[in-house]
Amino acid sequence: GYNMPGKYLIIINGKVADTEEAYFKGQEVANDFLIDTLFLPHPDENVLLAIDKKFQNIHARESNSLAIIECMTVASTIKSLDISLKCTPVMVTHLQLAQNLHGKGYFELVGKLEDLESSVEEVKKNISAEKLFQTEIIARPHRELLPYLASDKLL
């Protein structure tokens, strides 16, 4: 799909062997124009839902801590989200990929403070410093902040 002028984002979902074949063919065709890639067999089901803008309970923000993880590429954002969701019992409440972010991406997680801290540490261990832009954890965010999270008002 459309990403930014002159750039395109292609996400393929399906059986592992089929997507793997398409992935390698895409790399071959894109050649030097390729910015980043990710082959992610067996992603957490909430990664796919988040890409489709179907988020877990966003009202969970009201009683939990919040983590925001921002990456330099769409591929590293999706990989970070998958790592986060697989390593701790956290929920994704927003995912923004590339659009209005100059190709970067970010997501919001909610959960217990210690789970979010573990999740962020796991991302830092598995995503290179060049691809991880920044992380932030807010323990029990003030309720006046909540309407502005994951809001197009900020974009």
List the helices and strands and how they pair.
Elements: E1 2-4, E2 7-8, H1 16-30, H2 45-51, E3 65-71, H3 74-87, E4 91-97, E5 105-111, H4 113-126, E6 132-138
Antiparallel strand pairs: 1-2, 3-5, 3-6, 4-5
Helix pairs in contact: 3-4
Short description:
This protein has 155 residues and is of the alpha+beta class.
Q: What this model shows, in words?
A:
There is one protein chain. The chain is of the alpha+beta class and 155 residues long. It contains 4 helices and 6 strands, in the order ββααβαββαβ. It has a 4-stranded antiparallel β-sheet with strand order 4-5-3-6, with helices on one face. Strands 1-2 form a two-stranded antiparallel sheet. A hairpin with a 7-residue loop joins strand 4 and strand 5 (105-111). Helix 3 (74-87) crosses helix 4 (113-126). The protein is globular, with a radius of gyration of 16 Å. Mean pLDDT is 86; it is low at 151-155.
Query: Uncertain regions: pLDDT < 50 for 5+ in a row?
Result: 151-155
Q: What topology, given as strand order, has the largest sheet? A: 4-5-3-6
Helix amount: 25-40%
Using DSSP, what is the number of strands?
Answer: 6
Give the overall shape, derived from the CA principal axes. Answer: globular
Cα-atom radius of gyration: 16 Å
Could you say which structural class the secondary elements and strand pairing correspond to?
alpha+beta
The ordered H/E elements are: EEHHEHEEHE
**Average pLDDT number:** 86
What amount of the residues lies in strands? 15-25%
Largest sheet: 4 strands, antiparallel
